[in-house]
Each structure stands twice: as structure tokens, then as C-alpha cells.
Amino acid sequence: MKILVAVKRVVDYAVKIRVKHDKSGVDTNNVKMSMNPFCEIALEEALRIKEAGFAKEVIAVSIGPSQCVDTLRTGLAMGADRGIHVETSSSFLPLTIAKILKSLADVENPGLIFLGKQAIDDDCNQTGQMVAALLDWPQATFASKVVLDKDKNVATVDREVDGGLETLSVDLPAVITTDLRLNQPRYATLPNIMKAKSKPIKKTTVEDLKVDIKSDIEIIEVTEPPKRKSGVIVSSVDELIDKLKNEAHVV
Amino acid sequence: MMTRAFLLKALMKKTNHLISLNGFRSFSITNFSRCISTLILAEHENGCIKAQTVSTVVAANSLSESSSISLLLAGSGSSLQEAASQAASCHPSVSEVLVADSDKFEYPLAETWAKLVDFVRKQREYSHILACSSSFGKNVLPRVAAILDVSPVTDVVKILGSNEFIRPIYAGNALCTVRYTGPGPCILTIRTTSFPVTPVTADSESKKATISQIDLSDFKEDSDRKSRYVGQSVQDTERPDLGSARVVITGGRALKSVENFKMIEKLAEKLGGAVGATRAAVDAGYVPNDLQVGQTGKIVAPELYMAFGVSGAIQHIAGIKDSKVIVAVNKDSDAPIFQVADYGLVGDLFEVIPELMEKLPEKK
């Protein structure tokens, strides 16, 4: 079985972002970029499944500008076998990304597709569900535990839902999106980073894949959220209680 | 800046409008109500509609002045029918409750539910399909959207018009205004903390929506079901629900142990609030993960939010910054949480919490 993992290059999670003055978006020039944290978890899980002997090959896919190759190299250094880079200069809505992933899945025929549950830049939380719908495969979103049964060809997945955990069993092939608690992603070691340089990355384009590009959402403006008015530092518990009682009226 | 010509035009329109006031208005309203019809995928539990779904109705109501709102309830058995009759009077603007009663909907499987929404949509035209941004809504609606080949909008915090919305991006560090331009239904998930439910007046209580059962005889499900529900482990708490509590008390890593975290629970009890936690506290095993507040956990907007031993990482702030009053107690006076706190107290939480317990007034 092959496993396809989608990885996105995003502004590093620790960066304090700045909104552009012309309100057209968020400034991403000269900002540290890295692999979306949820994608790291997705890749880690795929690698663990391969190491447990359930899969033969892990393929990392990234869609975006030429710098996405760096993200793919990180994935290869973690242990992915090869990469696919769908090069494009435009940014796509999750629906188009899902269509690209579907067309790759039609070619590669993976038994599983792993994605992160959401990207920390657009916070959409849509792509995995959409890929599953387009392929008509079952989906297991927000996974915090994945157990494969090779004989029955099913995956048993614990999902993080509001109010607790839910367990599903899905037939393979399936789409799984990963939540934070699924695993602790490994660091790439220096020898593996060196080795990753010789692993293949196949380049392709949206035109090659014959995906129709959907742009039915228009971004009008991006603004800074309203600032909270600055608060006060109180010196004692008594003062705090007094403020809560008489100024904020919340206790 | 608006051009003079545009202003003039607008003025002319207004005059026209005044002249043929009656005719014009009735025309525009019928035209409008034909355009805006909303289907809401409702969530219910133990025969009751969830508060989050009512918030979603509030959001749907702001799509347009006149719109018809249908609630879709699915499940099986008597608790579903109970929930349906409650849903019919949950909000005065609900015009119809659609009930899909079948064993197929006993469990919230995305594949089946997405097919149901598509099935209902084929029978009646809807301009908008909504659900709340709960784990259920986020699981099902993008799947529906892909089936319909449209792009959904996640986590809407403000509705500017029937196709213009504001949603947070980058963990709430920026707000993005988007316009839906596609044909077909506009699919939204609603951040319910941004659409508070106003108490229903006695007058509107008498208004009840019609309840109709959906004929499912044509509803085809794959004969070989590809996903099955195995079970659920629910965190049962007697405290109020984290997402809708008036007061939320949160602890971070500084609590140091499961035992110490009980202090947070006691304080929450005293204030009648819910308990939340940071990712660090969850990862350290102090509390289960459904109490996590932040970008990847729950988004809360209580009247009072108190953070103890919480540093205030971007991802955590994303989940709390719409709270009315934020109180932070931390040893480190440089902790970023103090930048968003209305009241900050620099001190040791192991001293502050017991003192608060002692001095806070009993809740009425």
C-alpha cells in the first residue's frame, strides 16, 4: 500500500504576522516559513505506519510556489520516499487543492491519504473532507489515534469531537486528517537531511493534471482584528475582586 | 470615495422608490424571499436542540431581512421527534423543521449526513446551507460543498450581506472579508460565540414552525457502508459547557499536577463556570483534551475569563480574545497574556487561588 501525505508550506506558527497596509493580505515576504504543524503530524503517522510494515511507500505532496520544494525536502528528510510538487504561482481555494489531490490519487492509487486537520494560515479545515468527497472515500477527521488492520483492510480511528472522543472504523482506501495529539513528529537528522537531497521530487503543474480551477470566493480585504483596550495590573487579590465586582460587574 | 454621479443615482432611486412605495416594496420583498432560503443542519441531543444551533439561526437571520429558514434534524426515534417539536419554537424566524427519521442517521457519519444534505437540497432550492463550526459541522459541511462543487466559508464571525462574510485567519490575528461569487448554494459554518442568542420574548413563543417528515424512500445509501461507528467516550462533567459558559477558568502548565488542577475546578465551581486548559496542561495530562481552549481547541467568549499560569501563546489567545473581561494571574510579569488581560495580577497562583476562594462572594 502507498500512503499519500499532503503537506503545506505556511508562515511558521511562532511568527507574529503583520497585515499589509493595503489590506490585500498578510505580509509573507522575509517571514520564516515552515511545514504546517498538522501536516508534520500527518507525515509522522504515515511514516510510523510504513515502519510497522503496513505500507510500502510514503509520498509527500505539496502545491504552491517553487519554495515548496524546501517543505518537501523536509518531508523527505523525515523519511518520506519521494515527493510530488505541483508548481503554481497562484494560491488556490481548498476545493481546487482537493481536486488536485484527487487527480494525483487517481494516478498513484494510494490506500490512504493523510492530511492535517487544518492549515494554520487560512484556518479552513476543509481540504481533507473535500478530497474524501471527490474520491467518494470514507473520511476520519481530527484523528488522535489510528490503528490499521491489514487483513480486514480497515482503519480504526479515534476522533477528537466536542465533548470527548469518537471511534470510527473506515474501509480503506480512506482519507484521514490529523489532530495535534495523534503523535509527536520526529526531527530530521543531519544524515537524513543529506540523504533527502538525492530522493526524487516529481514536478507537475495544474495544467498537466487537467484540474479545473474554482475561484468562487473573492478576498475583499484583510484587516487587523480590533485591539483590546489595555488593561490594568492590580496589586492584590482584594483589588482584583473589587474591580471585578464594582468596575466589570462580573462577579 | 463615492462619485457624485453615483450619489445622484442613488438619490434618484430613492425618489422613485418613494413614489411607488407600495408597489416597489412588495415586489422587492417577494423577490428577496425567493432568493434567500437557508437550510441549517441542526444538532440535537437527548430530545433538545443544541444552543449552538440556535446561534446559527441567529446568524442565518442576519443574511437578509426577509429569509426563510429551515432546520434539518436527522436521527431516529422518539428523541428526534421531541427535538423537532422543540426546534419548531426555538427561534421565531425558523419557518420550517425538516425531520429525517431513519436508523441510517443514528450516528453522525459524514458520508451519510453529507448525502442527506444533498438529498434535501435536490428537493428544494436553498441559497444558503449553514451549520455551526462544531466538530460535527466542520466534518460534514466541507464534504457537502465538494459534492456540490462549491467553496465553503469556515468559521464566519460576521455577516455583512447575503454573500459577504468576515472570518478570522492566522489564529485570529487577521480578519478576512470574503465574498462568495459562485452559483449554487453558499455554504457556511458559523462561529457561534459571535452570534449570541437573545432571550426569546413571550410573544414569539407562540409562533411555531411547521414540522415535516422527509420522505426517505428515495434516499440511497451505498449498499456497502464504508465507515462504521464504533463508540464514543464522553467526558461527563456537571459543570456548564465550555463553549457556552458565562465564566471560564483556565489553567496552564504552571499548575504542575493533576492534583493542583483541582484548585481550578473548585474555583470554577464557586463561580459557576466551566474549566478550560491550555495545550501544555492537556499534553501534561492534567485534564482531558476536550477542555483545550485555543486555535485547535474550543473558541470561547464568556463574560469572565480567568487564566492561571497561562503564558498566552498566539494559539491560546486565538480562543479567548473575544471574552468580555479577561483576568490573568501569572508569576512572570512579561507573560504575553498580560497584553490582552483587562486585569492582571502578578503573583503565585498557589497563593492567589486560595485567597480568591476565600474572598470571592458566594454566587447567588
Quick tags:
heterodimer; A: 251 residues; alpha/beta; Rossmann fold; nine-stranded mixed sheet; two-stranded antiparallel ribbon; 7 helices; 13 strands; 28% helix; B: 364 residues; 2 domains; seven-stranded parallel sheet; five-stranded parallel sheet; 12 helices; 34% helix
Number of helices of chain B: 12
Work out the largest interface and the residue count of each chain. Answer: A-B, 82 and 92 residues
CATH architecture of chain A: 3-Layer(aba) Sandwich
Strand residue percentage of chain A: 25-35%
Portion in strands of chain B: 25-35%
Identify low-pLDDT runs of chain B. Answer: 10-34
Shape annotation of chain A: globular
Question: Tally the helices of chain A: what do you get?
Answer: 7
Q: Using DSSP, what is the number of strands of chain A?
A: 13
The main sheet of chain B comes to: 7 strands, parallel
On the 0 to 100 scale, the average pLDDT of chain B is: 87
Subcellular location (chain A): Mitochondrion matrix
Main location (chain A): mitochondrion
GO biological process, one term (chain A): amino acid catabolic process
GO molecular function, one term (chain A): electron transfer activity
Can you walk me through this structure?
- The complex is a heterodimer of chains A (251) and B (364).
- With 251 residues, chain A is of the alpha/beta class.
- Chain A has one domain: 3-Layer(aba) Sandwich (Rossmann fold).
- Chain A is built from 7 helices and 13 strands.
- Chain A has a 9-stranded mixed β-sheet, sandwiched between helices. A two-stranded antiparallel ribbon of chain A has the order 2-3.
- In chain A, strand 8 (154-161) and strand 9 (164-171) form a beta hairpin.
- In chain A, helix 2 (68-78) crosses helix 5 and helix 3 packs across helix 4.
- Chain A starts with a strand and ends in a 5-residue tail after the last helix.
- With 364 residues, chain B is an alpha/beta fold.
- Chain B folds into 2 domains: 35-213, HUPs (Rossmann fold, 3-Layer(aba) Sandwich); 247-359, TPP-binding domain (Rossmann fold).
- Chain B is 34% helix and 25% strand.
- Chain B has 12 helices and 18 strands.
- Chain B has a 7-stranded parallel β-sheet with strand order 7-11-6-1-4-5-12. Chain B has a 5-stranded parallel β-sheet with strand order 15-14-16-17-18.
- Chain B is elongated, with a radius of gyration of 23 Å.
- Mean pLDDT of chain B is 87; it is low at 10-34.
- Strand 12 of chain A pairs antiparallel with strand 10 of chain B.
